[in-house]
Amino acid sequence: MSRFSSTREQAFVYALSSAAVAFSVARACATGSLFACSCGATPREPPDGNFKWGGCGDNVKYGLQFGKAWADAASAPVAVGEKF
Question: Quick check: is 52 in a domain?
Fold first, then answer.
């Protein structure tokens, strides 16, 4: 059992923080700022009209994976002397 009790407000801030991390990482992947990821996948079906896909999309899939790992890291036990 945790020594701290959680509140709805803490859960909201935690979820918002995780979403911000996921968004920032997804955007950083698209700009080439991170070496661990690249552009997001292009759509399978092009949208209607004269739209032509170009450029580099945000890598939302990688951003969500990273955000989840970041959010879960706070609750993972860390052994004494273990590096992050």
Answer: no
Would residue 81 count as lying in a domain? no
- Structurally, the chain folds into a number of domains equal to 1
What is the signed CA dihedral for 18, 19, 21, 25, rounded to 10 degrees? 140
Instruction: Say whether pTM exceeds 0.85.
Output: no
Q: Exposed, middle or buried, 26 (CB in 10 Å: 0-12/13-18/19+)?
A: buried
Range picked from 5-19, 35-49, 68-82 for highest mean pLDDT = 5-19
Angle between helix axes 60-73 and 8-31 (nearest 10 degrees) is: 140
